[in-house]
Amino acid sequence: MDDTLTHVSAGRKLKDLTAKVLVGAAFGLAVIPLVSVLWMVVKNGLARFDLDFFTHSMRNIGPFDAHGGAYHAILGTLQQVALAALISIPIALLTAIYLVEYGEGGRLARSISFFVDVMTGIPSIVAGLFILAFWVLGLGMSFSGFAGALALSILMMPVVVRSAEEMLRLVPNELREASLALGVPKWRTIVKIVLPTAFTGIVTGVMLAVARVAGETAPLMLTVFFTDSINNSAFSGAQMGLPLFVFDQAGKPNPTAIDRAWTGALTLILIVMLLNLGARLIAWWRRPATSR
Fold first, then answer.
1. What is the span of the domain harbouring residue 13?
2. Contact at 8 Å (CB) between 218 and 243?
3. Which of 109, 154, 179, 185 is 20 to 30 Å apart from 219, CA to CA?
């Protein structure tokens, strides 16, 4: 009997060790490309990672000049992503709340869910073409950072809807039932119980959406256009973005422009990392004190 238990235990340990080795190997294979890309961007991006790069634009800078920076592009990216978030997050969050709390099994909810799935697979350039046709050509509006934000918001919405929907479904129904049993209205239960419980997951989904759109180039090429000057207003005139800056500089066949492109890519990665770090801190701060 003891020999049989020992044999079974040894077999389980062997299977467990094999699974750990396979999972570790798969993780290592997945990390290798990420680490190599990060290393290449950091190594090449440090060439122009200086104060001049972050405080000057490319106005009156020739393609072979060693000076110039991406201040105008950084400002444009921050404004465009912020506007896209302001447009898409409320709409997406309300949509997720309807799908989970009000429209479960309904025909309208199924239709909305279908269109969200379709929007998830839309190529980014299609969103840019839609805003170009509707906003710029159809309504006669000018190229602007706001037009780019509209295109980016189309890409953000399905990601936020799906992530928020999954987080809301993870909230135990017992919490809802206990609140309703005390006579609390449903809308107040959602605001005071459901949303705070799912807050951390919702923030994570929002940051995934932000990270997805922050590096999009195709929609901005069609809606924001290119400029070497600083444009503080996202609602009038062409406005640069970091993805456009990288694309523009990388297309110039000289080492100084290539260095600026690498530094622009490194700056974009750092911005996304800082935004994710800020979101993590906010989520940690809003967690219950007993789970910190």
1. 2-48
2. no
3. 109
Could you give the CA distance from residue 223 to residue 125 in angstroms, rounded to a whole number? 10
How would you class 7 by CB atoms within 10 Å of its CB: exposed for 0-12, middle for 13-18, buried for 19 or more?
exposed
Q: CA distances (Å), 108 to each of 74, 98, 112, 115, 144, in order?
A: 41, 10, 6, 11, 35
Give the contacts of 274 (CB within 8 A, at least 6 positions apart).
Answer: none
Q: 83 and 170 in one domain?
A: yes
The dihedral region occupied by 271, where left means phi > 0, alpha psi between -120 and 50, and beta the remainder, is: alpha
Query: Over the range 191-213, which residues count as b (16 or more CB within 10 Å of their CB) and which as e?
Result: eebbbebbebbbbbbbbbbbbeb
pLDDT tens, position by position, 145-178 = 999 999 999 999 999 999 999 999 988 888 888 8
One domain for residues 99 and 171 = yes
**Global confidence as pTM:** 0.85
The CA distance from 217 to 223, in Å, is 10
